[in-house]
Amino acid sequence: MSDIAKLQIGENSFEFPLIKGTENEVAIDVKSLRNATNGIITIDPGFKNTGSCESAITFLDGEKGILRYRGYPIEQLAEKADFLEVSYALIFGDLPNKEQLDKFHSDIKAHSLVDDDVRKILEAFPKTAHPMGVLSSLTSALTAFNPISVNIESREDMYNAIVRILAKFPVLVGWTMRKKKGLHLNYGKKSLGYVENIMYMMFKEPNEDFQVNPVIKNALDKLLILHADHEQNCSTSTVRIVGSSHAGLFASLSAGISALWGPLHGGANQAVLEMLEAIKADGGDTKKYMAKAKDKNDPFRLMGFGHRVYKNFDPRAKIIKVAADEVLNDLGVEDPILNIARGLEQEALNDPYFVERKLYPNVDFYSGIIYRAMGIPVDMFTVMFALGRLPGWIAQWKEMRLNKEPIGRPRQIYIGENIRPFVDIDKR
Ligand code: ACO
User: Fold this and answer.
1) What SS3 state is found at 371?
2) Are the beta carbons of 42 and 28 closer than 8 angstroms?
3) Residue 405 and residue 417: Cα distance in Å, rounded?
4) Is the CB of 310 under 6 A from ligand 1?
5) How far is the CA of 368 from the CAs of 250, 311, 322, 406, in angstroms?
6) Ligand 1 atom with least separation from CA of 265
7) Mutation test of ligand 1: which of 233, 238, 305 has the most ligand atoms closer than 8 Å to its C-beta?
8) Whose CA is nearest to atom 8 of ligand 1?
9) Catalytic-residue membership of 307
10) Distance in Å, CA 392 to ligand 1 centroid
11) Neighbours of 345 (CB within 10 A)
12) How far apart are the first and last CA of the chain?
């Protein structure tokens, strides 16, 4: 293949270089398009055909169902690594050796207190507040309590900001859930591993000793790993674009949390459970809801099905389906919602509408089921997603800043009124 793309506009022909990634993905480099063509731009709503950056963090091939972080296959990471190792690999480029991992963990533990005044902000929220709004606000508020700006030329500054947020974010997550459940706010235990400590902060009852259930710990580790990065999705693009204005790391993450909140993105795991509950309340007739999903005059969509990039299967869904079965067996969960979920899954996998459109269960179809079995409230599910995505957002923000990417500022094609004179209010 030639390494030049030719564009013919009327009489004029323009040439643009092709760039190739390490996995042979090809892009037409249109950086010079507007200048060369005297103002012509490309338009691509939803960015389905537009690369926003070159990135060395995550590779995914939606057609083949491949997902790799820093080159490591997701299946191997989910089976052999823990969430902290994966976070290190995403942020710093390679899996850590034992010494690097121990140092990373002890640096995180050194920052694991949150200023007590942050509690006062949390107290001001009503218990009914959506945890994603609370988490986004508290993450942004952390900037005020850690006001030192990051000099991106300084590795030390960058490292300190990273370990700070990896330490404090789980505290905010734990507090957000405890407030919701009416439990006192606690801190973690330094003697515990990173994920065990997250469980402790979320689930420790005041009148009971805390025991780590290894099956739940294993499932949580996997869920966090599977959600840890997914290249240039909506929330990650938000983190990068907010950071591109040189807003700080915590502010950029807070914006990413808001982007993740929506039901077409991270909010899907909550939407899945709400949908299953609604189907149960309506008599459990899955066929009725399948028909609604296929009816173009009905806005209903089968939540947890379909994906912007995975058009054959979601490799994360395969891994998490196994973990979901383990957790449900271990906890002996008998949940009518599960039968509805299994029914929908089977019907969708055999229904021509879903098969033709390549709509398969995505990771969030199963993650909500596990979170529910763990006793996590439904509106906390997306918070759990944010907890997993944190290292990915950090890695992408760091890459964007170190690459000195320009401020993100798309263009548009204006389709509004042409110039018209101002009309005084009494004449309108
Ligand atoms: N139920 C019913 N029909 C669907 C669904 C669904 N869940 N998803 C897509 N379709 C249909 C569309 O109506 C469209 O049909 P048409 O070609 O006849 O018009 C076709 O499939 C293609 O759908 P698009 O919306 O163009 O696909 P897109 O790639 O833009 O959207 C998305 C992907 C947003 C994930 C979509 O599949 C969806 O809304 N799914 C439900 C929400 C969900 O589970 N989101 C979680 C994503 S995973 C994550 O964020 C971690």
Assistant:
1) helix
2) no
3) 34
4) no
5) 27, 21, 14, 37
6) 50
7) 305
8) 306
9) yes
10) 24
11) 19
12) 60
> Of ligand 1's atoms, which has the minimum distance to the CA of residue 266?
50
226: CA distance to ligand 1 center in Å? 20
Q: How far is the CA of 373 from the centre of ligand 1 (A)?
A: 26
Type of residue at 223 = L
> Which letter does DSSP use for residue 199 in this model?
H
Copy the structure tokens of residue 76: 């191997």
Tell me the C-alpha distance between 403 and 279, whole Å.
48
Q: Whose CA is nearest to atom 40 of ligand 1?
A: 306
Residue 382 burial (CB count, 10 A): 29
Query: Which ligand 1 atom is the nearest neighbour of the CA of 272?
Result: 44
Per-residue pLDDT of the chain (428 residues; tens, 9 = 90+): 779 999 999 999 999 999 999 999 999 999 999 999 999 999 999 999 999 999 999 999 988 999 999 999 999 999 999 999 999 999 999 999 999 999 999 999 999 999 999 999 999 999 899 999 999 999 999 999 886 677 888 889 899 999 999 999 999 999 999 999 899 999 999 999 999 999 999 999 989 899 999 999 999 999 999 999 999 999 999 999 999 999 999 999 999 999 999 988 888 888 899 999 999 999 999 999 999 999 999 999 999 999 888 888 889 988 988 888 888 888 888 788 888 988 899 999 899 999 999 898 888 888 888 898 888 999 899 999 999 999 999 999 999 999 999 999 999 999 999 999 999 999 99
Instruction: List Cα–Cα distances, 58 to 68, 73, 194, 392, in angstroms.
Output: 6, 10, 23, 9
pLDDT recorded at residue 332: 85
Pocket test for ligand 1, best of 227, 234, 308, 364 (most atoms within 8 A of CB): 308
In ligand 1, the atom with minimum distance to the C-alpha of 308 is 29
Does ligand 1 have an atom closer than 6 angstroms to the CB of 303? Answer: yes
How remote is the CA of residue 301 from the centroid of ligand 1, in Å?
Answer: 7
115 catalytic per annotation: no
